[in-house]
Amino acid sequence: MPSNLDTENQIVKSLTDQFKNKIKTEYVKHNRIKISTNQDNLKSLATSVKELGFEQVISHGGTDYPDNNVFRIEYHIICVSKKKLRSIMFSIMTEISKDNPEIETLIDIFPSAEFHEQETYENFGITFIGHPRMERLLLPEDWDDIPPLRKDYVLPGRG
Fold first, then answer.
1. What is the pLDDT of residue 1?
2. Between β-strands 70-78 and 127-129, what pairing exists: parallel, antiparallel or unpaired?
3. Is the dihedral of CA 80, 84, 89, 95 positive or negative?
4. CA of 100: how far to CAs of 25, 65, 95, 154, in Å?
């Protein structure tokens, strides 16, 4: 398989031309692209990524960075409809403050993000504004502790 990055580089150039200094290319590798932006530009970036042909969020996650007082949110998006793009995993990422863990949902752009955002809400306490189901998904009904994937969560019996 050729390691030519023409397609990946063309995609990144298109987005860089459009967004200028509002995005940062984290990396471009064979079949992998990761771009970050601030939360104010995330929806615009997501819309542009979809217009390029990437239409399905296959995973999404959060990471707690307590030393920086931020959560990192990352969407992994693929294309299933265009053969040329099918092998590329496109990641878009942003950070939000832990003091106000809210960000607009992307389910109006990517309906497939619904479950992933709901899971991130439950495990990190990040609210996705506009999401129709910000409610418990996997944790027990009687869960009354902080979200379990935050770094300040103490596993019972380990405190």
1. 41
2. unpaired
3. negative
4. 26, 14, 11, 21
Whether pLDDT at 141 is above 90: no
Name which residue leads in pLDDT, 2 or 51: 51
In 20-159, alpha helices (H): 42-51, 114-124
**What separation in angstroms does the CA of 137 have from each of 41, 73, 127, 148, 154?**
28, 19, 14, 13, 21
Runs of H (alpha helix) within the chain: 6-19, 42-51, 114-124
CA–CA separation, 70 vs 95, rounded Å?
A: 6
Predicted confidence at residue 4, as pLDDT, reads 77
Q: Quick one: pLDDT band at residue 3, thresholds 50, 70, 90? A: low
Whole-number Å distance between alpha carbons of 82 and 108: 21
- Residues 51-91: tens digit of each pLDDT: 999 999 999 999 999 999 999 999 999 999 999 999 999 99
Tokens of 117: 């955002």
Nearest to 138 by CA among 122, 156, 116, 115: 122
Q: How many residues does the chain have?
A: 159
